Amino acid sequence: MLPGQAGSLGGSVFEPEPCALSPKFRDGGQAPGADQLVFERQLVTIQADSEYPAPIHLASRKTFHSMLVTVGICTWNRAALLREALGALTRSTRSAQLEWEVLVVDNHSTDATGSVVAEFRDALPIRCVVEPTPGLSNARNRCVAHARGSYILWTDDDVIVEPGWLQEYARAFREFPAASVFGGPVRPRFEGSRPEWLVAAWALVQSAYGIRNLGDTVARLSTHRLPFGSNYAVRRAEQLEHRYDPRLGRNRNAVLGGEEVAVLRAILRGGGEGWWLPGAPVDHWIPRARQTTRYLERYYRGQGRVLALHRSGEIDGWKPEPLGRPLWLWRQAVEAEASYRWSRALHGPERWVGDLIHASTAWGMLVGWAEGGRSARLVKFPSHPRAR
Known about the structure:
Blueprint (H helix, E strand, L loop, with lengths): L12 E6 L4 H4 L11 E8 L10 E8 L5 E7 L3 H12 L9 E7 L6 H7 L6 E5 L5 H11 L4 E6 L2 E3 L3 H11 L5 E3 L2 E5 L5 H10 L13 E2 L11 E4 H6 L17 H11 L4 E3 L5 E5 L6 H20 L14 H20 L2 H24 L16
Parallel strand pairs: 4-5, 4-7, 5-6, 9-13, 10-14
Antiparallel strand pairs: 1-2, 1-6, 2-3, 7-12, 8-14, 9-12, 11-13
Helix pairs in contact: 2-3, 6-11, 9-11, 10-11
């Protein structure tokens, strides 16, 4: 899942090789318009030191005027899951008029990711770019820079899409031509059976696993009703104007998030239109390693960091605080941790999981507060799950 500076174009790239370009373009001159290019569907390694296999051939020639959809997948060291995700895409149903490409962004993986991409050279219109800088936001920005579609349809390497998923989005793009944001349901796909405490507290924590359902009818999106990162689409024109903040999003050191929420909210606040598509669901893999309280602690600490970072950028007149954080925030974190430990000893998961969320968020805010560098006003906690 993950990583490059916004708009940067470096890195290793599997690209369809131009086969009818003028010498001026081959020598680095200005490229002709998209309607003038004829591409041979041949995947080639651009960088000599790329970890990907040597040239991969797709037998056919096609003129690309304006590809409708780019399916963007960011990945890091999850080759086995990526194989499943790409396999699901091969089963997609679509009309003959729908043009599409699958653009995999490899966050400099050290596993067999390159070989997995190569396996699908004959089954999918697939390309791959490498983003060496860790972080999901960097990977998304790399995808935006290389995408050719009029829309970028985002999913993840641990997601299985329904056969009609692509077609449902394409239908919505045509039905709502003024819209710039779309999204669909994300359902859980568990490895094994969930532990009892997770079953009991599932309503409190499903968002921590990327699960989303905004209803069974097509409806307008708003800044408070947004899709999640493994199943949404953004029109490319707006996506180019709103890149992903590298401070947000998952990376190798922290379970952060919120990079797609920040972008979608900015688009909608700027007057953009968005639609919820209940007929375009995906299934999100939840391994046993994430069905633990340790994972939830890491996740909600990351959410606390994101909350503090968002608010720190809004505050002027910053003045130093003891240890870089206000004393009231230290007190709130310590009290929340004590409440969690007491609750865990005396109550069931419907109660103590809520206290875990509160405590972990508070500790994460301490970290994010110092990272933000500003501390002049109270950062509001999300409502306590037990109060919902």
